[in-house]
Amino acid sequence: MNKVFGFIQRDIRLALSYPSSILMPFASIVFTVGGFSILARIVSPHATFESGRHLDYFTYVVVNLTFMVVINAAVQVVSAAIRRDQTCGTLEPIVATPTSLLEIVIASAAWPMIFAALQACVYLACGLLFGIRLGNVNPALLAEFLLLGTACSAAVGAIAAAFVIAFKQPAPLTIVIGSAATLLTGVLFPVSLLPAPLQVVSWLLPLTHALRGLRAAMTGAAFGSTAPDALWLAGATLLLFPIALLALHLAIVRAKTDGSLSTY
Question: What letter would DSSP give residue 50?
Fold first, then answer.
């Protein structure tokens, strides 16, 4: 835990040295939510955007954006932190310390995930201010899908970090996932509106299942109704995490062997 706190202190100091990097994301949230509150007026208030539960368009979008910022961050934060340490020349000293790969992954993601959680809180607060309508929230189901969705996305992010160490470039996987997230995972409109081939691609993305479970939790759904999505995320996480740690280990061993750990 001391190592994790050390990483958090470092990252907070870096963030505070550029105040606009903290303030601008929150300002952007206010304008984004305000814009969707106006856009939602052209959609029928009686339209249902969630199978089996009434969820108006504005609430649907705000809930998706709220949790997408957390789960999407889990995909990108580790590779972004590794890339920053590469260019700053601090990656090699960090790896040379008696710190395990899992500790490096957790510590690198700690502050960015805290910041993403703060952004999610501001999304919800702005949504409530502009009039989203939530049902009886199921806190246990909400925690389950936050944990599963973040863990599965973090495994993908760790694989991307291995790519950064090996090839000194951002992983194209995270770029594709980031670009596809809004279109393919049902953030702005239901996945059912997509062509059939794209629905298959959407089903393969962790964010699709995580958002479906989180929307259900925010509207008071029972555990049984979300079991397929929970099982998909749990299975994908169990499959991807060992692969991610192995990929990171092999990438670091290779970089140490050819002396490229400190290059970028």
Answer: B
Q: Residue 218 gets which letter from DSSP?
A: H
Task: Determine if residue 131 is left, alpha or beta; phi over 0 gives left, psi from -120 to 50 gives alpha, anything else beta.
Answer: left
* CA nearest neighbour of 237 among 147, 174, 170, 163: 147
Query: Encoding tokens for residue 64?
Result: 């998706």
b/e burial code for range 33-58 (CB count within 10 A of at least 16 → b): beebbeebeeeeeeeebbeeeebbbb
Reading the block at residue 31, the tokens are 């304008």
Rounded CA gap, 240 and 246, in Å? 10
Q: Rg (Cα) of the chain, in Å, rounded?
A: 19
Render pLDDT for 72-109 as a digit per residue (tens, 0 to 9): 888 887 777 777 777 777 777 777 777 776 777 777 77
End-to-end CA distance of the chain: 29
Q: Residues 168-184, buried b or exposed e (16+ Cβ, 10 A)?
A: eebbeebeebeeebbeb
Structure tokens, 190: 């239901």
Q: What is the pLDDT of residue 226?
A: 84
Distance CA 203, CA 184 (A): 9
Q: pTM score > 0.85 for this model?
A: no
Q: Cα separation of 63 and 152, whole Å?
A: 20
DSSP-based three-state secondary structure for 171: coil
Q: What are the distances in angstroms from CA 1 to CA 5, 78, 104, 107, 241?
A: 6, 18, 11, 9, 21
Distance between CA atoms of residues 51 and 73, nearest Å: 27
**Tally of CA atoms within 13 A in the half-sphere of 83 that contains its CB:** 16
Q: Is the CB of residue 119 less than 8 Å from the CB of residue 25?
A: yes
